[in-house]
Design brief:
alpha/beta, Rossmann fold, Hypothetical Protein, Haloacid Dehalogenase-like Hydrolase, Chain: A, domain 2, 2 domains, eight-stranded mixed beta sheet, six-stranded mixed beta sheet
């Protein structure tokens, strides 16, 4: 039995950052052949569901949770409350605090939307429509103590300038015994608890399913995929991926928007 693990945006999904019939049909063929497919994404559960995928195993929020095909929790790794307190009260930034299904921030919707719309992929009208739907899962101008009372699994921050990202990098280095910053791109901080990475989560799921490392196939294009691309022998990056992901992966395949990932999986059943 093999385990196929794939990132979503820029890897498995189409150019509209959605699944479609071809991708879903491919995933179903993997299961029908007796193998396992899992999403391995930085998104939380609700944002993953919005991508239109069929039922599948799920590694969400850069490894902070692992769910089986029926949606049952295999493992979860919420962030330490003291770390959340630090981010809320001892930094000037309006982070986005993710639970399984919701996203909370002390910032306002207007500022958030303005920053988010600067993202290059937001030029795609279909992506804009999906973002409008996903905004329903965001809660703005929240009481920080209310956020602190919740189980937070991942914290995001859209960095508007290089100095801002460098400050987050320094913060993550200073608290390296508490947090990991594994962004998909350098304009976005993606913070999880200590030891929580995609690579560790794929390994955890493989062990749970009694699948050997040599039977694990991983696919990713971004900086938050490096931990799994470096960890497993069968690691693949689309030709459209980041330079760092291409260097970390064992192999390169075709562009993500030509269905290269799902096609490669089906060729290796």
């Amino acid at each position: 039995m093999k385990l196929f693990a794939s990132d979503l945006d820029g890897t498995l999904l189409n150019r509209n950052h959605q699944s479609d019939h071809r991708i879903n049909e491919g995933i179903e063929k993997i299961f029908e052949a007796g193998h396992i497919f899992t999403v391995c994404t930085g998104r939380n559960l609700s944002l993953t569901r919005s991508a239109g995928l069929v039922d599948t195993f799920l590694i969400g929020m850069n490894g902070a949770c692992i769910l089986d095909k029926a949606g049952h929790i295999i493992s979860s790794h919420p962030m330490d409350k003291e770390t959340i307190r630090l981010l809320l009260f001892e930094t000037p930034y309006k982070f986005e605090y993710q639970t399984f299904d919701e996203i909370y921030t002390t910032g306002d919707e207007e500022t958030f939307t303005k920053i988010y719309m600067q993202n290059q992929r937001m030029r795609n009208r279909e992506v804009q429509k999906n973002m409008a739907k996903n905004l329903r899962k965001y809660h703005f101008q929240c009481d920080p103590f209310d956020i602190l009372s919740k189980d937070i699994y991942k914290v995001n921050l859209h960095c508007t300038h290089e100095d801002m990202y460098q400050e987050i990098e320094e913060l993550s280095k200073h608290y390296a015994d508490k947090i990991v910053n594994a962004p998909s791109v350098t304009s976005l901080a993606e913070i999880t608890g200590f030891g929580v990475t995609k690579g560790n989560a794929v390994k955890e799921l493989a062990d749970f399913l009694h699948i050997r490392d040599e039977d694990v196939y991983v696919y990713g294009d971004g900086l938050n995929d490096l931990s799994m691309l470096k960890r497993f022998e069968h690691s693949y990056c689309p030709s459209t991926g980041t330079v760092q992901a291409k260097e970390a992966a064992s192999y390169q395949i075709g562009p993500y928007d030509e269905y290269s990932v799902i096609s490669h999986m089906l060729e290796n059943l």
